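For concreteness, we quote verbatim a single protein encoded this way:
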Amino acid sequence: MRLPQEIIRRKRDGHALEPSEIEAFIEGLTREHITEGQAAAFAMAVFFQGMSTDECAALTRAMMASGVVLDWSKAGLGGPVLDKHSTGGVGDNISLILAPAVAACGGFVPMISGRGLGHTGGTLDKLEAIPGYDATPDRARLMRVVREVGCAIIGQTAELAPADRRLYGIRDVTGTVESIPLITASILSKKLAAGLDGLVMDVKTGSGAFMQSVAEAQDLAHSLANVATRAGLPTVALVTDMDQPLASAAGNAVETAHAIAHLTGAKREPRVQEIVVALGAEMLRLGGLVADLDIGRRRIEAALDGGAAAEHFARMVVALGGPHDLLERPETCLAQAPVIRPVPSPAGGFVTRIATRAIGLAVVELGGGRRRAQDIVDHAVGFTDLCGIGGVVEAGDPLAFVHARDEAAAARAIASVQAALSIEDEPAHARAPVLARIVAG
């Protein structure tokens, strides 16, 4: 067996790794025989040299096999096991709305979610803003909640793809997040370990995405669809817009509150609705629950409008230890920042561009994300009522509201938002939420 440093050197020098080399490295990572420095060097080598589809498939399989693979065949579900995964962005709280909507339509969704990476928010961090919510249940509890409720949005447990969990944290702090092979293997190892019947990928592109150009996003979408399909998991990828925050909220508790408002119908934003409906329709079609996407769209819309999606979300929260009255009293259940300040617009005009990555980094600066893997997240901080592209403002109007721990942090965040939004005399139009649909081939 090659030494870890030899495997790193071969990849650094541009050689294709054999499956046995990849398996040996991942086994060493899982058993903690490989140091963090070696894991970081491996990630950096892959970042610069890339991987072939065969290498990426081998890496995915090795990370999947590093832990337990769920078997739903004896769970008595009575429906397909489905999931969705997003490559990450700002204001992306879609999972909190989508999983219960699909469950309300007859799907079973064991959604294994991650923490924030770089400037992007993590679904797991949003869930941990809910008091008492067990985001890392044991396997028995996960399977029970999925069987009884239809969905369970959780974090990666120690049993599922443990090699990925270790590499995931290292990528976040070593500047290797954007590597297509590493993204592909990270996502799909967890999804394959979850024992799915179908997967829909939401691949973000734009100023707030890791893949900033549509071409890069399509490359990643093809990688995900091809590797997943090769591994026996039917997968469709949608390329979606992240040239502005998806929701008008960015942060953990504030995005959770925003998702609750969408589920209950208190406030629904068209871009969020379109992404939820498009992804949900794909999931229902992959699972054989509808004959075509148009029927799927109508089913998801009905689950939201009729309250079934909200009901499934509430049941999931309670089943995983959260409060019974979260939907009725989110403002008292979720953490509130002590300082809330408006971001005054420096000029009047139209919002034409948003440096969305800068918004995400401003959330991190407030304490709502991580600089180091071990950092503790402040769930209360972030932004609400963010102005979108095409918005019209007068000088002094609020571009957003900052939720901060203190006045100094609020002042820095105000300056960050003002610098991130371009205001001009002529209007600009936002891109469509869904830009492309990618299947294997």
Q: What stands out?
A: The longest helix spans residues 214-230. The mean pLDDT is 93. The chain is about 45% helix and 15% strand. The CA atoms of residues 121 and 437 lie 24 Å apart.
